[in-house]
Design goal:
14 helices, 392 residues, elongated
Length: 392
């Protein structure tokens, strides 16, 4: 289907965007109210469409008032202009967005101009596009993997600044240490003291830099595991075989690289999540994303441990391997994930917190309140199945 799409803009960009990506109209006209214009939604959506290959995007900003007495004549005028400008073309009104009153006005207005006005509604709950043309109604399934992660983030007003998993050779290195990663997750309880030692050493290998990424120091660190056991011994042997740590003297080691220090300091759990998502064949998966929302280049970056998208639904995963100690730290983690989820996942996604350490009951209750899926300790091994169920 080509022709022209008319989209009523709201804070939810995905319903309009999915329809445009599915049917690839020759032109897209955006109806933007004063409120949506002040939020920058029209320009943001226009940029997204142009980046996605739309050649002609027109913004209508002069939407009058809020009453039907004003809105219906305005809709009639827009419809009449389109009928003249695109004579003979298929013109579709996507009335999914906008306020109910605006949608009603445009349906009335377009039906007044076009004898068999074609109406489109994106039903994300049932994953289909619903059409009405005259007295005929029909539906079209939303394609399974219509949207990728960069498009999804851009639709929510975000810009990807960097992605660890897109770095040259990262995926090969991740797969090269996958056996160790899976071992750390499988025996996460038995390796508790190893994580304490590695997290501490990794933390000391970086210098805190305000407003920027911590600076890696090629320094020698003491790594001493309290109460070692056979599980720790096996993991330690594999760490040395992979040359993630370079022995210097008794209990003194140098991290082989910045990536090795970050991996052993907790990033192994992000890689575990990435490997699980990759195994079940999700449409698009990115690990270690830095995202900036808005146009302010000085705005702080938002860090996402893992973002995956499948069936046009997104899942955000936060990974933690350290002890939370008091409830303040766990509250901060939950609040951050909830805030980022509200900003990015909205109604189209899920939020997951993976914790190598057990949580307190109060933290579990707050996670439930925020609708965050919490997997802790040995529950990490069920992540693959949980993820498959979420995005099936």
């Amino acid at each position: 289907m080509s022709g022209v799409h008319v989209c009523l803009i709201s804070a939810q960009a995905m319903p309009n965007f999915m329809a445009v990506m599915r049917y690839r109209p020759d032109a897209v006209h955006l109806v933007v109210t004063k409120e949506m214009h002040e939020l920058g939604m029209g320009e943001r959506f226009a940029d997204l469409l142009q980046q996605s290959g739309c050649q002609e995007v027109v913004i209508h900003r002069s939407v009058p008032g809020t009453g039907l007495v004003e809105l219906v004549p305005y809709a009639v005028r827009i419809a009449s202009e389109l009928a003249t400008r695109y004579e003979g073309s298929d013109i579709v009104l996507n009335f999914t967005g906008g306020t109910k009153l605006l949608s009603m006005a445009f349906v009335f207005g377009f039906q007044d101009v076009f004898e068999n006005c074609k109406l489109l509604y994106t039903d994300t709950d049932h994953r289909r596009f619903e059409f009405m043309e005259g007295n005929t109604c029909f539906s079209d399934p939303i394609p399974v993997n219509l949207i990728n992660i960069p498009q999804y983030i851009a639709a929510q007003g975000g810009q990807i600044i960097g992605v660890n998993s897109d770095l040259p050779g990262w995926k090969n290195r991740c797969e090269g240490r996958a056996d160790l990663t899976h071992y750390l997750a499988e025996y996460v309880v038995e390796l508790d003291h190893l994580f304490d030692a590695l997290n501490s050493a990794s933390g000391k290998a970086f210098r805190r830099v305000v407003g920027s990424r911590d600076q890696f120091l090629e320094s020698v660190q003491t790594v001493r595991v309290n109460e070692p056991n056979a599980f720790v011994a096996f993991a330690w042997q594999r760490i040395l075989e992979l040359k993630l740590l370079i022995p210097v003297e008794a209990h003194r080691y140098r991290f082989a690289s910045e990536e090795a220090a970050r991996y052993l300091g907790g990033f192994w759990l992000e890689e575990y999540a990435f490997l699980a998502a990759s195994k079940i064949g999700l449409h698009d998966i990115r690990c270690g994303l830095s995202v900036r929302f808005g146009q302010d280049r000085s705005a702080p970056l938002n860090e996402f441990d893992l973002v995956a998208i499948h069936h046009n639904r997104v899942v955000l995963v936060e990974c933690k391997t350290g002890n939370f100690g008091d409830e303040t730290k766990s509250d901060e983690v939950l609040y951050k994930l909830d805030a980022l989820g509200t900003r990015l996942a909205r109604v189209f996604g899920e939020k997951v917190l993976l914790s190598a350490r057990p949580m307190k009951d109060s933290t579990r209750q707050r996670a439930k309140k925020y609708k965050i899926e919490l997997l802790e300790g040995r529950q990490l091994n069920s992540f693959e199945n949980r993820l498959r169920k979420m995005l099936s």
